[in-house]
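Ops channel
N.P.: pipeline sanity check, posting one input/output pair.
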């Protein structure tokens, strides 16, 4: 396998990982910003108050997005295994 194929395979893997991670990170960011705003307005500065809802938001987003994430991951795996002959040279 040539260096160009290795770089291409690495790039596709990183893109797939990024596509799968961005929705979960966006949910954590949105909840974190909302909670920071509420904490600033109420002058309530408790770390647990910001951590637990963020974890729950990420878990909820993961449950809701799991079918899409699995389809995307299955498509990537199918493409990878379909081109296995090219990568095994």
């Amino acid at each position: 396998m040539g260096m160009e194929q290795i770089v291409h395979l690495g790039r596709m893997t990183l893109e797939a990982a990024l596509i799968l991670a961005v929705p979960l990170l966006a949910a954590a960011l949105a909840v974190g910003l909302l909670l920071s705003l509420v904490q600033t307005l109420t002058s309530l500065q408790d770390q647990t108050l910001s951590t637990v809802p963020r974890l729950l938001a990420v878990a909820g987003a993961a449950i809701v997005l799991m079918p899409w994430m699995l389809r995307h991951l299955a498509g990537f795996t199918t493409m990878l295994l379909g081109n296995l002959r090219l990568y095994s040279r």
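N.P.: looks fine end to end. DSSP finds three helices and no strands in the chain.
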